Structure formats: C-alpha cells, structure tokens
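Exercise 7. Given the components listed, write out the predicted structure of the assembled complex. Treat all entries as one system.
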Amino acid sequence: MTESSPEVAEGRYWLDQPKNVTLIVWILVVVCVLLFFADAFYHKHSHFEIEDLFGFYGVYGFFVCVALVLIAKSLRTILMRSEDYYESEHEAHRTSGKSLHTHE
Amino acid sequence: MSSLSPGLILILGALAVPLFRGTARQFYMLALPVMALLTSSFLLESGVHGELTLLGVELELVRVDRLSTIFGIIFSIAAALAVLYNQHDQDPVQQIAGLIYAGAAIGAVYAGDLLTLFIFWELTAISSVFLIWASKTERAYSAGMRYLIIQVGSGVLLMAGALLHYADTGSLTFDELGLNGVGNTLIFLAFGIKCAFPLLHNWLEDAYPEATVGGTVMLSAFTTKLAVYSLARGFPGTEILVYIGVTMTAFPIFYAVIENDLRRVLAYSLNNQLGFMVTGIGIGTPLAINGTAAHAFCHILYKALLFMSMGAVLHRTGTIKGSELGGLYKSMPWTTGFCIVGAASISAFPLFSGFVSKSMILTAVAEQGYFVPWLLLLFASAGVFHHSGIKIPFFAFFAHDNGMRVQEAPRNMLIAMGIAAFLCVGIGVFPQPLYALLPHPVDYHPYSTYHVINQLQLLLFSALAFTWLMRTGVYPPELRSTNLDFDVVYRRGLPALTRGLISLVQPMDKAVREGAVRVLHRIVAGFYRYSGPGGSLARTLGAGSMVFWVLAMLAAYLLISLAGT
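Answer.
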C-alpha cells in the first residue's frame, strides 16, 4: 500500500524501460516455443482427431485470437457511434418536443 | 431454524439496518450474510421445509438439496464480500436494497415451487434497480428503467408460464420441467431473459456498468446466476441450450475487444461466461451439471473480484474508460495484483479457480461428441483470456502511463478483494472442497499433464497474439465510443418506428379531422341560413298578417265546404 508521490521520476519503475518490456516479450516467445515442442513428450487424451495435431492448442489459440481482433476491429466500421449516441438522440427528441410544445 | 429460508434472514434483517449507526451498522450488515452462510452450510437439512397451503395450492418455501445448497452458499459468500466492499459507502438505500436483493436471490434458489420462485424472482428485480439508480445520473436513471421493465417482464412471463403449467399438471412444484407445452416454454423464456440469452441479453451490458461502484459488484453475482440455477433445475439436458450457450460464449467477446468502458467489457465477458454454464446445462450429464454449478461458484468470485478492482479504479480516478486510464500499477499496486488474480481465474490458468471448473464443461461437451460447439468454446476460452485476462489489467494498470497518481483503494475494498483473490487461488489449488459441494458425485481430476499443457498452450499463444498485434500497432486502440448492440432496436429502432408511424398517420388524421370540421361548418351554416337572424324559418310576422292568414284559411274552408254540398 505504498503511495507514490506525483513527482516520481519516469524510469524509476522497472517496466518503464522499453528494454525490460522487450525482455518480457522474448520470455513469452521462448515459453511458447517450449510449450509447442512439449507436445512431443506426453500422451494426449483426445476426444477429437484434431487434438492430435502437433501443437494444436497453441496454433488454434494464436489464430483465433488474431481473427477475433481483426474481425472485431472491422466491426467498428459498422457498430461504432459517438460516445453520446443515445444521449444526443434523447436531447434531440426532448428539444424537438419542447419546440412542438411552444408551437402549440 | 430449519424451516426459515436463509433468504429471509437477509430480507427481514435488511429492514432493521436503519436502527444501527456507524460501526455497529457495518458489523450488523456483515453478520446477516454470515448467518445466511452458516444456515445454508450447516443448519439446513435436505428435504422440504416451510410447507404452506394457500388457496388449495401447496407451496414449499424452503426446499433443500445439493443443487440449491451450493448456490445458497456462494450467494451468501458473495453478499458478505459485497457488504465488506461497500463499507465506505454509507448510502442507506443501497445498503437496504443490496441486502434485500441478495436475500431474494437466496430465497429463490431455495424455493420449492414456482409461485415462491416468482415472488423472489420479482423481488430481485425491484430491489436491484435501486443499485443502478443510486448512481444518480440521467444515464443510470434511463438504464435502470429499461432494466426494470425487462426484469419485471421476465417475472410476468414466469407467472403466466407457471399458471399454464399448473392448469396442465395440477402442480406448481419446481422440478425438471422440460421444453414442452406453452407454459413451460414461457418459463424457459423468463429464465432466458434473466440469463441474458442472445438477443435477450442487452439489459445486462446496458445497466450493469451504470450502477454504483459497489452496486455493480452486487449485481454481477445474483441475477444471472439465479437464472443459471433455475435453468439447471428446470431444463437440464435440453439440447437447444447447447447452441444458445455456445452463441453466448462467442458473440460478446467481439464487443468486449472494442468496448472502451472497462466495466462494460466485464459485462460482456460475464455474458460470455454464462454461455459456458448454459452449454453445460444443455449437455445435462452429471459431469456437465457439476461443471455448471462449479463454474457458477468460481465465476461469482472472480467476476466480483474483477468488478471490485475496476470499481476501485473508478472510485479513485473517477473514470473507467480504457482510453483515459493506464499506468495505475504505480499508484494502486494491490488493486493491480488482485485484478490479475481475477484475470488469471477467469482465463482458467492452471492453479486458478476457472481452470478446475470450466474444464469440466469442456470435457463434458467433448465426451458427448459435440465437435463444432467444442471448437467454439475453445475459441471463446482464448477470447476470454484476450479481453478479460489481458485487456482489463493491461489498459487499466499498464499500457501507457497517463500520469494519474491516485491513492490505493480504501482498506475495506482491499480486504474484500483480498478474500476473493484468496478464494480464487484456494479453489484453483485445492478444488476438492468445492467438488464435495457439487450436485453429483465427482470423479474428475483437472490436473493431468495433457490438460495443463494444452490449456497453457491455448492461453500463452493467445497472449503471444495479443503482444504481436499490440507491437505491430494492429490492435485497435481504445476509443471513446458507443458500439451498437441489440438494444439499438428498442432504444433507437422502435422509437424511430413509432415516430415514423405517427408522421405517417398524422397527415391522414389531419385530413379526416379537417374534412369533418368542414362538413360540420356547412351544416351549421345551413341551419344558420334558415333559422338564424333573418332566416326564412326564424322570421317573426306581425299580428295583422296573422289575422289576415287565419281569415284567408277560414274563407277557403268555407268555400270548400260550400262547394262540397
């Protein structure tokens, strides 16, 4: 529960240095490679044939995640509206109601 | 004691909350869910208690079996954690509404008949909406209204279904119903609304993120899991639930990736997690039902933990938008740590709670040979890790430091998060006590070599994908935005349709009215011409001319009678 003071100099934290972030990325890559080749050393209890493919879970996980992000990103072109999309409608409706009222 | 529903302890106890002040009130409020927990765990014996005959209908206020007990226990734990988490907020409306809400949910899982279920079902709706309204914003007010209408509507469907079911079978007992007949279909729909089935789901993503910091934590635990319990009780093995569930796991994750409000991201991932439970109910084997119950138990804890950590961020920074946050690990290290535990649990990392429960459902799906649903569930598992496991902690606590320097979360919040995190890890490392609570005997061992390695492969390669997309700049940035979901139909579409219809009908209506007015005018003018001043029918004649005409008539009469003789 240490409180950091506002004047903490950038770079005091280990993660602030880009080379450390790169280090973490490389560790992740190495672990992934190890996990991929781990498939050679144990027996799978598969229910479906596809599970027996070498490194199936890793390859599948990687590609569905990339697909997920790319599809979601392209969905933005259809789905994305301004942050106050519903509010602006509400406001417009209300002011039009008001003008209608004064009109009467 | 054995005939008293643990739910009533909370509901009746809530009414006495205003009698206490300060620390006494905090202890009292914590004592209520703890008492409910002790009652659920130790005092209630299996069987039916509190039987009541009302107008010739047999009611069972408390029906205790393994399925209701596990939900009663986790609901009590969730209520206790939420009370602890909310101690900094002394708003009595939220305190009372929250306890009644939790009590109603607990009362509902112990309800042995459909009428008792209905009463508690509606009580959860009416009490919980105050947690949304307590935000006191215009947005929260409208979202709460929509939430209330949909929730109460679900109750109305349940009541209608229960009455039809009673007419068919002569019984209101809430046991396995099956999807047959109009009555049972209505009940299924009522459960489906509360369970956020696809297209019936939007109240969840709409309302939960608008509630107060503590309100969302409370909401995340009860309503939807009550629906999961009800489906598991009434419709186990109903095959359509497999496909509904799989759809629920898959589509919300696309929204979660592009959503900016981090509590709304969690609401989408809640929807996705419900999908796993619904799929398990659809499979319906003992392993699958065990998986659903276990997953509901773990899910309530890690989802509450995630909402608590995001609530703490909102409480301290005043915003929960991914586009405005970042670098908070420097000033909120404990909250960061607890959030990561929640993230690892929902992602089902080995040694965390999600792993020991979700794998049961996936195994059950595979055992029954559902290949495509199984592939989609794997996709959804990777997707969960992507948005809840990585995106939430990354954008709130890491990403680029936006310079916010705030205080760590209040102590009571940290204690609540700490207990939830402890339980998440505890269940992950020692799943046996949880397995002992499950509805069916358990013969399942999550920690086998292939299972652990397969899961790590799936998750870490997903992390690799995230890292790669992030470093190459392909990953979509957090943007301040609203993403259209199904609620656009009733928030924009229906109002626009109504306005369109009105603008179509209005000219016709105007023409008809104007025509009618013209005809009326013409009739009135006609009357006026003949009967108005100067009109021929209204002319007054002088007395002289009257006498003249009378004489003329008499003369004519005389002449005619003379001529006749």
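Discussion: The mean pLDDT of chain B is 92. The CA atoms of residues 165 and 177 of chain B lie 9 Å apart.
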